[in-house]
Structures are given as C-alpha cells and as structure tokens.
Amino acid sequence: MATKAIAVLTSGGDAPGMNAAVRAVTRAGLSYGMRVIGVQRGFNGLLNGEIVEMNLRTVSDIIHHGGTILYTARSPEFNTPAGVQQAAANCRRLGIGGVVAIGGDGSFRGARDLTDKGIPCVGIPGTIDNDIASSEYTIGFDTAVNTAVEMIDRLRDTMESHDRCSVVQVMGRRCGDIALQTGIAVGATSILVPEVPYDFQKDIVDRMRFTQKTGKKHFIIVVAEGVGGVDKLAKDIEEATGIETRATVLGHVQRGGSPTQRDRVVGSEMGCTAATLLYHGKGNRVVVMRGGKIVDLDITEALNMKRTFNKPLYDIALRISI
C-alpha cells in the first residue's frame, strides 16, 4: 500500500548537498501524490513538532546553497526508548507514514529505531567525512575536498614566497579520506591519516630532505583531524629541518559553501530514490552508492558493515608526492 505522507529531516553535521537531497525528496514525493512534511532540527523536531508543509516552491532555489534549509541538531532525548516512542506517536498524530533521514551513522540508527516502532524510514548518507561504511560516497565529501584544495592552493602562494613548510589540518576524526584526496590534489609531501600509523623521521623529515636535494624549497603536510597535534608537529618539523613551518587548521570552512556538481547530482539521485522507496511502503532501508550506482540496503546490514580505507590510493600518494 502506497504511503500518503512522508517527512524529511537532516540530522547530525550539515553537509553541502543536503539541500539537493531535501529538494529531490520533496519533489519526487509530490510527484507521487504524497504530502511532504519538512521536519526542522532533525529528530529533535519530531519530538517538538517543528514541522513545515513542503511544496514545489518551498524547495525552489535551494540546490546551490550549502547547509540545510531544515536546520540540523543532535537529540539526546530521541536516543532514549521513550524519545523514540514519542517521535513515533507524533508521526502517527501528524499522519506521517514514512521518514527520510539525511545524515551519518547516528541518523541511520535513529531511522532504524523509528522503523522498529512502526514508522518506515529510509536513510541517506550526508556527511563530509565520507565515513559511512555501507556507501562508497557520502553527500558533501566532494565539496569539502574541493574547498580544502582551494584553501591550500591559497596557502601555497605564501609558502612559495617564503620557502616555508605548511602543516594543514583538514576535517576527519576517524576517517582520512578528506586528507588523502586533498593531499594528492595539492601535491603534499606527506599525508597523515588515522588509519595509517606514521613515523615522524621516515614519513616526514626524510621525505622533506630527499625532495630538498632535488630542488624543492616549500612543503605541504596534510593532516587529518583525527591525527591532530598540528601545532606541535609544525614546531617539531622546524626544529628537525630548520625550515620555517606554520600550522593551519581549516576547520568548519570545509562544511560550508555552494555544493559541487557531484554533490548536487548525487544528493538528487539519493533523495528521489528514498522518496520512491517510501511511496512503495519500503522502510528500514538506506540509500547508498555501491560500485558507482545508487542502491538500497537494509539499515541493520549497512550499520554492521566495516569501513575499509583506500590503502592502494594512499600508496600511490607516497610514490608520487616526492
């Protein structure tokens, strides 16, 4: 039996491309003849009744904006059995027969819990870190990497002018994908990620000295947030090499900005697929990218998957960044 009304929310950290997904969920849902309700501030909004009726014009001119028009928040209350029960009761009271939750693993767990209480849910991976094990790509990653590349390219002008080393921290607490792909794109001498232990002498100092002998005078070290300690690292590099070294933390600038073409298109594909699943009454699913294609998986199966780091790409970086 087709669902008559669905809700869409964004949860956890914001990511460029979330608006594209919200737009696609809304317009696809309306095209199926369903009502679409926007829930503001994530699962917290389900508990507090922060909702807005969505229509075609509600989502006009949002595809190129970063952040999320529905806002986002974390909800400790929802993470309790009583909170989930209340959210499900609110959905029934509002006539909501299904929910699309856009966010990370925490959002997927919330969607699974809500499905268990009788409200079919579909998750969409939206996080700049690209750290969802079940999906080879998450909405926001491409924009974040391109932003980091642009910022480091700007830093390079100063590095070249002063023959400096720049240690740049990018986002990624448990996942080094932003650091890895940014590091390759900017030609970093060293790339430090949480997944691979590093040796200060071998992986940084020796590489810098080797490239110095070939005529290189400025250096970029890209460090994932999960490795941390960039201020101390910069000081240690300067002491070991005698090269003036500065640390820069790019921070939340990577979350903002207009989403790239890829994030707009992937967000649109995933959003439309999620609405279609709910229209057909299918819940407890996540929409992910596997083998370059958009597919759907069981939420529990997706959450139980183990993420694998792209070690072959990391090895390529080591070989060519000299």
Mean pLDDT: 96
Biggest sheet details: 7 strands, mixed
CATH architecture of the largest domain: 3-Layer(aba) Sandwich
Q: How many DSSP helices?
A: 11
Low-confidence stretches: none
Describe the structure.
The protein has 322 residues and is an alpha/beta fold. The protein folds into 2 domains: 5-140 and 259-303, Rossmann fold (3-Layer(aba) Sandwich), CATH 3.40.50; 144-256, Rossmann fold. It contains 11 helices and 11 strands. It has helices at 18-31, 42-48, 81-94, 105-116, 141-162, 177-186, 200-213, 230-241, 261-279, 299-303, 311-320; strands spanning 5-10, 35-39, 51-54, 99-103, 121-125, 165-170, 190-192, 219-224, 245-249, 285-290, 293-298. The chain has a 7-stranded mixed sheet with strand order 3-2-1-4-5-10-11, with helices on both faces. Helix 1 (18-31) links the parallel strand 1 and strand 2 (35-39). Helix 5 (141-162) crosses helix 6. The longest helix has 22 residues, at 141-162.
Main attributes?
single chain, 322 residues, alpha/beta, Rossmann fold, 2 domains, seven-stranded mixed β-sheet, four-stranded parallel β-sheet, 11 strands, 43% helix
Itemize the secondary structure elements and their pairings:
Blueprint: E1 5-10, H1 18-31, E2 35-39, H2 42-48, E3 51-54, H3 81-94, E4 99-103, H4 105-116, E5 121-125, H5 141-162, E6 165-170, H6 177-186, E7 190-192, H7 200-213, E8 219-224, H8 230-241, E9 245-249, H9 261-279, E10 285-290, E11 293-298, H10 299-303, H11 311-320
Parallel strand pairs: 1-2, 1-4, 4-5, 5-10, 6-8, 6-9, 7-8
Antiparallel strand pairs: 2-3, 10-11
